[in-house]
């Protein structure tokens, strides 16, 4: 009985990769990543912008539905302070129809654009706040929806206007509320 143990050098079938093969694979992956990462950051910035726009549109639609459901004006006010916090947007049932949030009125939602990293109001458009709605008596841009779904301004007249949003890549979106209550994105 003759048992012979082969050394690693004698083996004709080696398993694994050589250092040169591994370096080539790493170089190829680095080359692919150099092109993929810039596109990924652009995609992320645009995704956040689109998410913020969808959230604002959904809240405008929500305000219209709540106004009809509760048979009350439902108001959206921008840059609204409540206590020690200032919110980018608040939605509330406006029982006294003055487009001003009072502590006695039911607060439905608050929106902070800061939750969408790199997204903000485009202050180069609109009335220096990125919002083109008539200010309420407190100086905050506001729009209300009547129980019929029609937008109203601070004087009780038909309201319409726009919200201007941009991301860190300066890509811009506009949300428009028409005089008949239509909401569109451009």
Describe this structure in words.
- This protein has 1 helix and 9 strands, in the order αβββββββββ.
- It is of the alpha+beta class and about 190 residues long.
- It has a single domain (about 20-185), classed as minor pseudopilin epsh fold (3-Layer(bab) Sandwich), CATH 3.55.40.10.
- The strands form 2 sheets. A 5-stranded antiparallel β-sheet has the order 3-2-1-5-6, covered by helices on one side. It has a 4-stranded antiparallel β-sheet with strand order 4-7-8-9, with helices on one face.
- Strand 5 (about 140-145) and strand 6 form a beta hairpin.
- The chain is elongated and about 85 Å long.
List the helices and strands and how they pair.
Elements: H1 19-70, E1 74-82, E2 85-93, E3 107-111, E4 119-121, E5 142-145, E6 151-152, E7 161-167, E8 172-177, E9 183-185
Antiparallel strand pairs: 1-2, 1-5, 2-3, 4-7, 5-6, 7-8, 8-9
């Amino acid at each position: 009985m003759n048992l012979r143990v082969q050394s690693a050098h004698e083996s004709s079938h080696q398993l694994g990769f050589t250092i040169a093969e591994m370096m080539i694979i790493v170089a190829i992956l680095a080359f692919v990543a150099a092109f993929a990462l810039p596109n990924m950051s652009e995609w992320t910035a645009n995704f956040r912008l689109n998410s913020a726009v969808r959230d604002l549109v959904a809240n405008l639609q929500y305000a219209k539905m709540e106004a009809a459901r509760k048979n009350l004006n439902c108001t959206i006010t921008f840059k609204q302070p409540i206590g020690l916090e200032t919110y980018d947007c608040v939605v509330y049932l406006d029982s006294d129809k003055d487009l001003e949030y009072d502590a006695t009125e039911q607060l439905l939602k608050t929106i902070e654009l800061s939750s969408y990293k790199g997204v903000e109001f485009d202050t180069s458009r609109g009335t220096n706040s990125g919002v083109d709605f008539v200010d309420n008596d407190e100086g905050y841009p506001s729009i209300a929806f009547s129980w019929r779904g029609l937008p109203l301004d601070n004087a009780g007249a038909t309201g319409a206007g726009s919200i201007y949003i941009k991301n860190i890549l300066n890509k811009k979106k506009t949300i428009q509320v028409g005089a008949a209550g239509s909401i569109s994105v451009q």
